[in-house]
Specification:
heterodimer, A: Rossmann fold, seven-stranded mixed β-sheet, two-stranded antiparallel ribbon, about 60% helix, B: about 45 residues, mainly alpha, 2 helices
């Protein structure tokens, strides 16, 4: 049986840690959460030389072992707990060749924990452009470790790294410096009081604001032979420790690293000057957004049409090959159209995440955060609020959780309350189908009206978020201050593998996550639309035939009338018509009303619901879009989805809080039902009023 | 396929679907709620 070892990948953010993880594990990886908290846990398996298998954990990025966030706690908790099943046999600290000095702070701390540690110096391909040269042998000797000089971009040095990991027993676990020199007396006392414990581990337990596993700070304070220091004294010692470490690092780098600026060919400063310019920065960002939305439309139309017609044909095929009956109808009229309503959006979702991932990978997204900070501050938010607002384009839930790193409670609360306005991926299917129905296909300076409308909706969502933040900032009487620091990573060509994995993971989670709900809701809706109480439903055929006996309708027309009569008197029809008076002023019929109610579970359910309702009793092989386009407004006549009702629906979905899970997460993050309740009432009322005005004005 | 079997399949599917919706949105087992979110998309919103 081959031996399996635990390897912890640790490093500062933006050092390419995830790229190293991807290079080592390939597709043998899974993403989860640490138990009890919502910090992401990435782990994978890597086959090493001589039959050794490595279980690799990609720990959250951290600048040091002085924890200030949940993410950093995870790293320290694991490194301090030898009983943890994931406790590493070897730590791999990933650093970036351009920020070696800063990265080595974390490395020296981990070495002090006496864990065998390898130093990975990533992005070696950039050394030439930066005029950097390294004396690896000297660094290895001074840092008391083995170094792997790699470039994940060029796929260089990975096999050497694997070789080093497989020889983990040869890696030194001796610290490279003596941190106890900052206060020898204090550390001597500590050593005497706890002779069996690792000194640096004790120091970390004393100085952190959290208790770690079995080594409880209170227990230590209870031992009379050891007198701890006041909080401010400990802080002072921590600062002294950091200074001491940097002195050591400077000394090491003086002998092991040379930077010849004359040889540097760096374009970063010039790029930054343009991309973060107070005018050109915004113009370029606008152009990039326009290009993205245009591409989403242009590139995905062919695969979308293909998927749409494939599902229509599949329904028809199921009806032909299976015997007539309730289950066949459930498959052909409920499940297949319902699932088709989500699968059709795979191309657009994939393209959206492709672009977002490219922007993140290239380092441009950090420039956007910096750029937007200028705007955000005027609305009572900090630059840190930009991250949740941008990540809200995927889903409001992780975005709301990302507000945990905002120190000011007021700014955090405002960000939590306004983030659901950001256009999330669940709104995308609703927008796309309505836009394709009500916005003409023409172009304006090469940009299609449909792409422009989609971009406008994203801007409306973002605008609604910052305007409401401004109002909340004026209303909420909570005093607090915060600061904003963002690291600007270097510009890089996005790595295909990283981009591909992100797109795959996001698309998969969208389809499988939403797919299960849509499948369940489609089954329930089909049932409610196919069964009903009373004579009107059960005797629909004879009622309709008697009613239209004198009109000499064709077989197909009679069949259509019966289906329509049954639907109206089914459970869903009765419910829909009960709520119809409230939504009629917005230009919607009862079927749209049902779709709105069911999409409270998740917005994307809207399309699946309409696809199911319109399919019940319909024998034609037709696409979802065509079925929606042929719906007639029962009161006003003409197409149900016209410009007025379409715009009204788009605005309703732009502003309404149509997401049960978001409300649950807001409750959890604010620890109160007050905020989600207010959010639901205000957002829904606002959405209703705006949709009403839009329809009444445009009809 | 016998109409009775078809009806049994329909009602089984319906019961499973309702059970899933109830578990997802109304009654959540406690152990599930702690694993709420992450980039794996298991954020409970879909």
């Amino acid at each position: 049986m081959s031996k399996q070892i635990n390897v912890a990948l640790i490093g500062n953010p933006n050092t390419g840690k995830t790229s190293v993880f991807n290079a080592l594990t390939g597709l043998n990886q899974k993403v989860g959460n640490y138990p009890g908290i919502t910090v992401e846990k990435k782990e994978g398996i890597c086959k090493l030389p001589r039959g050794v298998k490595a279980h690799i954990i990609d720990l959250p990025g951290t600048y040091s072992l002085n924890a200030s966030s949940l993410d950093e706690n995870v790293v320290i908790e694991l490194l301090l707990n030898k009983n943890d099943k994931d406790f590493p046999d070897i730590a791999v600290v990933v650093s970036d060749v351009e920020n070696l000095k800063r990265n080595l702070l974390l490395f020296t701390q981990i070495k002090d924990l006496e864990i065998p540690t390898i130093l990975v110096i990533n992005m070696s391909d950039r050394m030439r452009y930066k005029g950097i040269s390294l004396d690896i042998a000297y660094l290895e000797a001074k840092l008391n470790t083995k170094i792997a000089l790699i470039s994940t971009r060029k796929n260089k040095g990975i096999s050497e790294l694997k070789e080093l990991i497989s020889n983990y027993k040869d890696i030194s676990s001796t610290p490279c410096m003596n941190a106890s020199e900052i206060d020898p007396g204090y550390f001597d006392n500590l050593r005497k009081a706890f002779p069996n414990q690792l000194l640096y581990k004790l120091w970390l337990v004393i100085t952190q604001d959290v208790n770690f596993g079995k080594t409880d700070r209170n227990e230590m304070e209870a031992i009379s032979s050891f007198k701890t220091k006041t909080k401010s004294d400990l802080k002072r010692l921590q600062q002294k420790e950091t200074i001491k470490r940097y002195q050591f690092i400077n000394e090491v780098l003086k002998g092991g690293q040379t930077i010849d600026l004359k040889n540097a060919k760096d374009l970063r400063i010039q790029f930054d000057r343009i991309l973060t310019h107070k005018v050109w920065g915004y113009v370029i960002f606008g152009i990039i957004l326009l290009t993205i939305f245009q591409a989403i439309y242009d590139w995905s139309s062919v695969p979308m049409d293909f998927i749409d017609s494939a599902f229509a044909s599949l329904s028809e095929w199921v009806k032909q090959i299976m015997p007539q009956g309730a289950f066949t109808n459930l498959l052909a009229e409920g499940i297949i159209p319902g699932l088709g309503g989500i699968v059709i959006f795979i191309p657009q979702i994939a393209f959206l995440f492709l672009f977002i991932s490219v922007l993140e990978e290239s380092g441009y997204m950090s420039r956007v955060v910096f750029l937007m900070d200028r705007i955000m501050r005027r609305f009572g938010l900090s630059g840190k609020s930009v991250v949740p607002l941008i990540s809200g384009t995927a889903c409001a839930i992780p975005a709301i959780m990302a507000t945990r790193n905002i120190e000011s409670w007021k700014e955090r609360l405002i960000t939590i309350l306004v983030t659901p306005f950001t256009t999330c991926s669940a709104r995308l299917p609703v927008y796309l189908i309505i836009i394709s129905l009500v916005i003409p296909e023409g172009r304006f300076i090469g940009l299609s009206y449909q792409a422009l409308t989609l971009m406008l909706l994203y801007l409306i969502g973002f605008g609604a978020a910052i305007v409401s933040a401004y109002i909340l900032n004026k209303i909420l009487k909570i005093k607090s201050k915060t600061f904003f620091v963002v690291e600007m990573p270097n510009y890089k060509l996005p790595m295909f593998k990283n981009v591909a994995l992100t797109v795959l993971e996001k698309t998969k989670s969208f389809v499988f996550g939403a797919g299960k709900i849509i499948l369940a809701i489609s089954i329930v809706l089909w049932f409610l639309a196919s069964y009903g109480p009373g004579e009107e439903f059960n005797n629909a055929e004879s009622i309709v035939k008697t009613q239209y006996a004198s009109q000499h309708l064709s077989e197909d027309e009679i069949h259509q009338k019966i289906a329509s009569h049954k639907l109206e008197h089914s459970f869903i029809g009765i419910t829909g018509r009960a709520i119809e008076p409230t939504i009629r002023p917005l230009g919607y019929d009862w079927k749209i009303g049902i779709a709105i109610v069911s999409s409270f579970a998740a917005r994307e359910v809207f399309v699946g619901t309409l696809a199911t309702i319109y399919s019940v009793g319909n024998n034609d092989e037709d696409t979802i879009k065509n079925r929606m386009a042929s719906e007639i407004n029962p009161i006003l006549g003409g197409p149900l989805f016209n410009f007025a009702s379409g715009i009204s629906l788009l605005l309703f979905y732009a502003f309404a809080m149509q997401c049960m899970s978001t409300l649950a997460i807001v409750k959890r993050e604010t620890n109160s039902w007050k905020w989600p309740t207010l959010q639901l009432i205000i957002m829904s009322a606002f959405a209703y009023i705006v949709a009403l005005i839009a329809f009444q004005f445009l009809k | 396929m016998n109409p009775i079997i078809q009806n049994i399949l329909v009602f089984t599917a319906l019961a499973l679907a309702i059970g899933f919706i109830v578990r997802k949105f109304i009654w959540k087992p406690k152990s599930k709620t702690t694993k709420a979110c992450g980039t794996d998309g298991n954020c409970g919103c879909h």
